[in-house]
């Protein structure tokens, strides 16, 4: 039986403040999960935030897949992506198949919620890199997981042994 050539659409949500060692663990976990999930090509959907989203995009590319980017707001790159992550953001954004804009001008919870909703509209599955700690706003990882499950989207939570988050910048 030949494999189905239609790409499976896989979205990602997860923490942005991963330690460098955790980014490696997450890349390995995402790689293993994407390989396990399907013998079909992968088409990812990501907001391309630092941390999980950028690790996911690089992993999809490493597997020969493609991805779309959902940008929450026009100011997202300068308002949200830290200077140390912008070169990677720009490189990965340039490699996106499609870039979708939510229509919001300014980054913030409403724009992030809209981006998460748009991401969920476009996927068959969701991978979540989450440590199990509830978030503090409507666009947090746990809320996106709940929304996906509420829509019947198969969702896999990944948090590799030894994974850690950096403390929030203060």
Structure report:
The chain is of the alpha/beta class. It has one domain: Rossmann fold. The protein is 38% helix and 21% strand. It contains six helices and six strands, in the order βαβαβααβαβαβ. Strands 4-3-2-1-5-6 form a six-stranded parallel β-sheet, sandwiched between helices. Helix 2 (52-62) links the parallel strand 2 (42-46) and strand 3 (66-73). Helix 1 (20-37) crosses helix 2 (52-62). The longest helix is centred in the first third of the chain and has 18 residues, at 20-37.
Question: At CATH's second level, what is the architecture?
Answer: 3-Layer(aba) Sandwich
Give the C-level CATH assignment. Alpha Beta
Low-confidence stretches: none
List the domain count as a whole number: 1
**Can you count the helices?**
6
How much strand?
A: 15-25%
Using the alpha-carbon principal axes, give the shape. globular
CA(first)-CA(last) distance: 55 Å
Mean pLDDT across every amino acid position: 93
Number of strands: 6
What is the helix content?
A: 25-40%
What's the gyration radius in Å? 15 Å
Which key terms come to mind for this protein?
Rossmann fold; single chain; 6 helices; 6 strands
């Amino acid at each position: 039986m030949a494999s189905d050539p239609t790409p499976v659409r896989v979205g990602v949500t997860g923490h942005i403040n991963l330690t460098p060692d955790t980014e490696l663990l997450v890349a390995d976990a995402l790689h293993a999960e994407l390989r396990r999930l399907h013998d079909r090509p992968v088409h990812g959907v990501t907001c391309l935030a630092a941390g999980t989203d950028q690790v996911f995009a690089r992993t999809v590319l490493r597997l020969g897949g493609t991805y779309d980017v959902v940008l929450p707001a026009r100011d997202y790159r300068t308002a949200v992506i830290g200077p140390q992550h912008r070169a990677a953001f720009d490189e990965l954004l340039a490699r996106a198949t499609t870039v979708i804009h939510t229509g919001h001008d300014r980054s913030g919870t409403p724009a992030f919620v809209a981006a998460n909703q748009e991401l969920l509209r476009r996927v068959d599955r969701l991978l979540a890199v989450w440590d199990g700690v509830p978030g503090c706003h409507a666009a947090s990882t746990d809320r996106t997981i709940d929304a996906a499950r509420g829509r019947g989207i198969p969702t896999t939570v990944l948090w590799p042994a030894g994974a850690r988050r950096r403390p929030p910048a203060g």
